[in-house]
Amino acid sequence: MASYYPEPENIWQSIEYSSLGTSIAESLWAFPTLETIHVIALVTVFGTIAVMDLRMLGVASTNTPITQMSKDTLPWTWAGFILAAITGSLLFVSKASSYMINPYFLWKLGLLATAGLNMLYFHFVTYKTVDQWDSAAVVPSGVKMAAVISLVLWIGVVFCGRAIGFTLGIYY
Amino acid sequence: MGDFFFGITEWLRETWLLDAAFWMQETAISKVLVENFWGVPFAQVAHIISIAVAFGATLMLTLRVNGKVATNLTIQQVEARYVRWIWWTLVAIVISGLLMLFAEPVRNMINSIFWAKMLALLAMVIVSLMFQRSVLAQANAAGPGWTASGGTKAISWIVIILWCLTMAGGRWIAYSPV
Q: Which of A141, B1, B3, B21 is the most buried (most CB within 10 A)?
């Protein structure tokens, strides 16, 4: 079958013009369906992270130990994140070269990486002393700082995600 | 399916909703949102974050009713934590949604998917209210050892499905033929 796509000039175009990329781009339903699952997954990630962060800030759920809250929310956060990553990757494949030139997409990746580092630092450094503040209504400032940074970064991720949709065609 | 929704959109075009949408388009708030590039994206960000907080709270309540989380807390304690967050963020969802509606009234009002979303939202609100009240009443009557029946657990997941349908409707508005 004849290909209607030009010869790829870089890796991003190779991805975009792959059979997977063109199938998603040409389908009437694939892109909106993937976007829908992506949004539901992202909302699950942000929603469960917000529950945990509000506990860490001492704003809500102060009758629940932080370790318990982490155990309750984390499986859902990870499930949502994995689903968002899979659907996000498939969305990316369909328009790879447009995404890679879009600053909001690059910012979104940077914010996601920073949120990951913040989570790693919290779990491997701050969390070591959790026995001392697990059930405390008022937690150490380092814990609150991790929660504030997390919320700010994830709001940034949502903003960039929406900004991509409004700016995808304007960068060349 | 596509023809069905397209047919409804064609019918909507013949109703008073079109004149209402034209009127909304001329309001000051609509013009402010249209003339500022970031107006609609910011309203959408507020909308998504509000949905996330409400959905996260709903999910936690659902999981508690199913005995999967916070089993050390009573249903009364769990409802006290999450229910007000659900309803206050629903207020934020409605306000940010109205901003998006006023920014693009014709695209939304003359759109069958938009009204399907509104129906899903209405169903979600009604079922959520009934569910939350019923769970609280059952827990109050039975005491701290209360566990949800199979029917109550099923309704808790119906609330989650209605949230997902509402979100799906929100995304598909952009792809509906207008």
A: B21
- Which chain B residues have a beta carbon less than 8 Å from that of A73? 60
Structural domain that includes position A81: 26-167
pLDDT at A6: 81
User: Is the ipTM beyond the 0.90 threshold?
Assistant: yes
Nearest to A71 by CA among B1, B15, B70: B70
> What's the number of domains chain A is made of?
1
Q: Is the model's pTM score more than 0.90?
A: yes
What sign for the dihedral angle of Cα B42, B44, B49, B54?
A: positive
**Residue A51 maps to a domain:** yes
B interface with A, Cβ–Cβ below 8 Å:
37, 40-41, 44-45, 48-49, 51-57, 59-60, 63, 69-70, 72-73, 77, 81, 85, 164, 167-168, 170-172, 174-175
Indicate whether A111 belongs to any domain.
Answer: yes
| Among A61, A57, A77, residue whose Cα is nearest residue A69 | A61
Q: What is the pLDDT of residues B24-54, one digit of tens each?
A: 999 999 999 999 999 999 999 999 999 999 9
Of the two residues B87 and A58, the one the predictor is more confident about is B87
Chain B residues in contact with A46 by the CB 8 A cut-off are 48-49, 52-53, 56
Residue numbers of chain A with a pLDDT score lower than 70? 1-3
- Beta carbons within 8 Å of B95's beta carbon, 6+ residues apart: B46
Is A4 within a domain?
no
Task: Give B41's contacts in chain A (Cβ within 8 Å).
Answer: 159, 162-163, 165-166
